[in-house]
Amino acid sequence: MYRRPLLTTLRTLFINGNRAYGQLFNVNEKPQHTEEEVGAFTKLIEVMGFTGPLKYNKWKIKIAALRMYTCCVERVNYDEFFDKCSLPDTMNSWFLVAQLHIWMCMVRMRQEGREGKYMCRWLVHSMWEDVEQRSKIMGVDSSHRKEGMRSMTETFYAAIFGYDEGVLSDDCVLAAALWRNLFSKECEDPKQLELMVEYVRKQMQFIDALDGEDLMLSGEVKWRPLAGGKPSEHPEGGHAHL
After folding, report:
1. pLDDT value for 161
2. How many domains does the structure of the chain reveal?
3. Which of 29, 103, 180, 199 has the fewest CB atoms within 10 Å, measured from its CB?
């Protein structure tokens, strides 16, 4: 299986906070003004659609985005998803499961205004940094890596569009989006689709109830299990054995 030899290396990339934060983000960035410091003119141009100071320090948002991404890759039992959904144990399957959870985080954070959208930007940035690192560690050459990244980028944004439509529609539309994107149009067992529709619905309900400010500053997300039980923490051996 492709994932197991990479465990130590990739944990170093994302759990070693100082090193990871230093690689992905500019830690010397100056603190941003608080909401109270935003003047009338700044508020006016924000209403007109121009950018202005964020409510929270950008550096803190970037750190929280990295933590949130880490929750998407460290707190998800990928083996269970592969088993329950009959997905092959491959880099592509890992990406499809990861992007589903990243999308759910993005849906929640979009509710937090410009700050939430800024966090989404860095959440996705963290994902692409990770994907590229994984490809390099697996020994994929530069040309194939670029081609693969291009393909994954197209897959990701198509999935985001489909999932957005699905979560705002009925279960049939959501099931169709999951069939196209998570299952790559190869699911023949309706129970698997039903399981995933139920998972997305209950997970979205759960994450929607989380405090927005806490998410913005901590990035901590717990996941509902596929079937019953309490939200997942750090399953021993159950997450992606990278």
Report:
1. 96
2. 1
3. 29
CA 204-152-18 angle, 5° bins: 75
Please report, for residues 47, 116, 219, the alpha-carbon distance to residue 141 in angstroms, rounded to integers and kept in the order given: 47, 35, 33
In the block, residue with structure tokens 């930007």: 121
Domain range holding 128?
Answer: 4-24+59-218
Confidence class for position 227, pLDDT limits 50, 70, 90: confident
pTM: 0.74
Give 87-135 pLDDT, tens digit per residue: 999 999 999 999 999 999 999 999 998 999 999 999 999 999 999 999 8
Domain membership flag for residue 40: no
Is 38 part of a structural domain of the chain? no
Residue 156 located in a structural domain: yes
Establish if 52 belongs to a structural domain.
no
Residues 78, 69, 212, CA angle at the centre, nearest 5°? Answer: 120
Residue 239 has pLDDT above 80, yes or no: no
